[in-house]
Amino acid sequence: MQNFVMPSSVIRKYYYKPELQILKIVYSSGAVYNYLEVPEEVFDDFRAVFSKGVYLNRNIKPFFKYKKVSDI
Q1: What does the alpha-carbon distance between residue 72 and residue 57 come to, in Å, rounded to a whole number?
Q2: CB under 8 Å to 41, separation ≥6 — which residues?
Q3: What is the enclosing helix (H) or strand (E) of 16?
Q4: Which 3 state secondary structure label does DSSP give 19?
């Protein structure tokens, strides 16, 4: 699983597991969500954009199933 730490007011860090197509988001609040069946191309676009929160809200949340994993 690839791990990415970033400065953001919303997202603390994120991980991507390409073999399972899971995008894990750790929010600044401590909530952890798995976004399921996210193709690698979508993840690559997410990784490339400046505003990850905007991309997540417009291009991932409306189209991919997700579930809360935990709070840290």
Answers
A1: 22
A2: none
A3: strand 11-17
A4: coil
